[in-house]
Amino acid sequence: MLTKRIIPCLDIKNGRTVKGINFVDLRDAGDPVELAEIYAQTGADELVFLDISATEERRRTLADLVLRVAEKVNIPFTVGGGISSVEDVDRLLKCGADKVSINSSAVKNPQLINDLAAKFGSQCVVVAIDAKQINGKWMVHLVGGKVSTELDLFDWAKEVEERGAGEILFTSMDNDGTKDGFANEALAKLSTELNIPIIASGGAGNMQHFTDTFKEGKADAALAASVFHFKEIEIVDLKKELKEKGIPVRL
Prior knowledge:
The protein has helices at residues 32-41, 63-72, 86-95, 104-108, 111-120, 153-162, 184-193, 207-215, 226-229, 235-244, and strands spanning 5-13, 16-21, 24-30, 47-51, 77-80, 99-102, 125-134, 137-142, 147-152, 167-172, 198-201, 221-224. The protein is α/β, with parallel strands linked by helices and 251 residues long. Strands 1-4-5-6-7-10-11-12 form an eight-stranded parallel barrel, surrounded by six helices. The active site is at 11, 130. Its main location: cytoplasm. Pathway: Amino-acid biosynthesis; L-histidine biosynthesis; L-histidine from 5-phospho-alpha-D-ribose 1-diphosphate: step 5/9.
């Protein structure tokens, strides 16, 4: 059985790690490279870095951050934010990233998913999907959740898989930062309907929430930020708890 992955997420704004609630009210959480190094040493399976201002401000993701992280960590890491071309991805992978995450650019230009998968392999391509419930339907949002679309979460996820994405990072905007648990019903539906790994994001508040998202949400990986950044949960303790509950993890 494949082990379940625990992934700290570092949202980057102006070179610092930040964390908010429902995608707003950001507060500083430290230096991203220092945090990455600590996570790599204390049991994280992977890391995700999202330059949350890159798309909004039309900037490219900072390649120098990737270089600095690659020098310090020995676990796989994904970089996202403002990536909109094959050239962007080529540069980031050459700087040391293992995967890239695309979101708004994939919706605006779905062919980009095909192009990246063809050139770099599906294992390098993570499509991030931010969605919230509107009138009972999960609708996709762009630009850090600021722009609504008419896209249905499940329809878009299926298209993303068909186009060659290797993984989906699903963030529930309704759950993000609330610490009330992950959107397990939606996660379970994604996991059932798709064949590629689903990373759960948005809502982690305690260790039980991780157990629930692996058991009820059928997630392949669970991503969290503030509970790790502010040491509310230590990854080594979380993994011991998960193992005791029969969930396969790498200790």
